[in-house]
Design goal:
Elements (H helix, E strand, L loop, with lengths): L1 H31 L5 E7 L5 E7 L23 H9 L6 H7 L3 E3 L6 H4 L4 H7 L5 E3 L1 H5 L3 H7 L3 H23 L2 H19 L1
Parallel strand pairs: 3-4
Antiparallel strand pairs: 1-2
């Protein structure tokens, strides 16, 4: 109950404070390329329940047939505005809406698309999905340059499934077992410091 109250209060304050930035970003997206402001995608939430996540759209609307669900640095589908949004992680801010809706938390394992959740080992799957997914978590900071790592791989999707995903999943399970309000506050502070560094 305390974590949920913290999530609601934090998301509400953040949305109000960031409203001018959110409106400016929405305008930039509309001026940059045709299409909606938000990107909605199915993700797997707490206890395996699917939900549609909110993100600012960073790619062109028209996607090639069979396009991968992972994105690497230099992906030609990324728009000019989208490249900046991804670098600064501003594209993730609309997930504050998901926090208010109760499908996400400020801190928790990042929600994965169903295709990759299918690769979760049963034991780790149960532990990682025991809590609400979050906007940030330890794995998010460790793999903040994930797109660059994938760009260097000969087979990006195989690299993600066999190397990055298992590492992120282990950290997600560890977070779910030891999470506390104090650790969440510390992680939010670390995330803010990292993002401010990337903006500069």
């Amino acid at each position: 109950m305390l974590k949920r109250a913290f999530d609601v209060a934090g998301a509400t304050v953040a949305l109000v404070a960031l409203l001018p930035l959110l409106l400016a970003v929405a305008l930039l997206i509309k001026l940059d390329t045709p299409g909606p402001v938000f990107f909605r995608q199915w993700r797997v939430g707490r206890h395996g329940r699917p939900f549609r996540i909110f993100k600012f759209r960073t790619m062109t609307v028209e996607q090639p047939h069979g396009a991968p669900e992972i994105t690497r640095a230099g992906d030609t589908r990324i728009t000019r505005t989208g490249a900046w949004l991804r670098r600064t992680r501003v594209d993730e801010l609309p997930q504050l809406i998901d926090v208010l809706r109760g499908t996400m938390s400020l801190v928790g394992p990042r929600p994965e698309v169903p295709r990759y959740v299918a690769f979760y080992p049963p034991a780790l799957r149960e532990r990682a999905l025991a809590v609400r997914p979050g906007i940030t978590d330890p794995a998010s900071l460790e793999f903040i340059d994930e797109a660059t790592l994938l760009a260097r791989a000969a087979d990006p999707e195989r690299e993600y499934i066999e190397v990055i995903l298992p590492a992120k999943l282990r950290r997600a399970a560890a977070y779910a077992e030891r999470a506390s309000l104090a650790s969440d506050l510390a992680l939010l502070w670390r995330t803010l410091r990292v993002l401010l560094t990337k903006v500069r």
